[in-house]
Amino acid sequence: MILITGGAGFIGANFVLDWLAGCDEVIVNLDKLTYAGNLDSLKSVINDKRHVFVQGDIGDSHRIKQLLTQYQPRAVVNFAAESHVDRSIHGPGDFIQTNIVGTFHLLESIRGYWNELNSGSKREFRFLHVSTDEVYGSLAQEDPAFCETNAYQPNSPYSASKAASDHLVRAYHHTYGLPVLTTNCSNNYGPFHFPEKLIPLIIVNALSGKALPVYGDGQQIRDWLYVKDHCSALRQVLAYGQPGETYNIGGWNEQANLDIVHTVCNLLDEFRPRTDGRKYSEQITFVTDRPGHDRRYAIDARKIEQELGWKPAETFASGIRKTVQWYLDNPEWVANVQSGAYRDWVAKHYATGENNDA
Question: What pLDDT is recorded for position 357?
Fold first, then answer.
């Protein structure tokens, strides 16, 4: 079996669902269930015997050691992270605690567990750390895409905390020999995405008749990766990746934020036209850019394709159609997630036009 952390979040939940759809190996799923951890996303497997859910924090060394001893996983996949750039600007402390201190405690617990394994299990064990392309900083329009050897230049408290966690993971491999794998992915989109991020926020606001806030001139460029493609890449890295290596995972889909918003609006015009006959794009509102907003990210994903044989199955055109249709088909999930801490966050920050594209 494998242990995953943060498996009730957006990418983690998709990974759980895809894993159980493709194999019978048990997943032990540890999640703290903060505002973005949503068990509704796992409703279809919550009673599946192959899925063992445990509420807990990666910084709780006692709980982690207990789970490792009890379940004896052959691998740990670490999705647990605070991941919202705007939240990191307004409250960086949680990002330091979870992404840096939490990762340290997790690594220490895993190192102790790994050291006690027999030689065969020790050799086969893997720790897969899921990170972001934001650790590399911002690219100019003419710059080549990020590759695995790019220097780290994080520009937000979020990306700085993830960069620190990446460095810890690397250090535990080189110092202690822990068989780690690190992946740095581009912007994900798809089912179960929390509606504070750009694409689901635009869908939800458009259908509600609200403004569609776009930072600055909307020309910030991101590489967009369909979440199920990301999950397939992670499975490939876990199965065939070389310990100590980093693999960049991207969708080969660079798009400006404003183009993303127009694409979503056009799909909503097609799938669910406004009753007044007007276009959803008329709801677009340009707002003051956020502090330190990175201009461009792009992933060079040739290494994972050449060494591990992975490449994305979805184009942006195919993935975004599936995504918009999923949100239209799942209004109950959307309604349930728009409550509690999320509702408070939107009420506090929507007046200033703040959203997030990363």
Answer: 47
Is 148 annotated in the active site?
Answer: no
Catalytic one among 57, 86, 134, 357? Answer: 134
φ, ψ dihedrals at 52, nearest 5°: -110, 110
pLDDT (tens digit per residue) in 310-322: 999 999 999 999 9
pLDDT surpasses 70 at 343: no
**In terms of Cα–Cα distance, which of 207, 220, 224 is closest to 267?**
207
**pLDDT of 208-260, one tens digit each?**
999 999 999 999 999 999 999 999 999 999 999 999 999 999 999 999 999 99
Residue 116 bears catalytic tag = no
Query: Which of 226, 231, 357, 216 has the alpha carbon at shortest distance from 297?
Result: 357
Residue 133 annotated among the catalytic residues of the structure: yes
Q: Are 47 and 95 in contact (CB under 8 A)?
A: no
Which of 31, 82, 133, 223 is the catalytic position?
133
Per cent of the chain over pLDDT 90 is 85
Q: Give the C-alpha separation, 269 to 1, whole Å.
A: 45
Residue 132 in 3-state DSSP? strand
Superfamily of domain 2-191+224-255+292-314: NAD(P)-binding Rossmann-like Domain (3.40.50.720)
**Domain locations in the chain?**
2-191+224-255+292-314
Mean pLDDT, the chain, whole residue set: 93
- As a dihedral over the C-alpha atoms of residue 156, residue 302, residue 10, residue 139, rounded to 10 degrees, the angle is 20
Q: Catalytic pick from 158, 172, 215, 247? A: 158
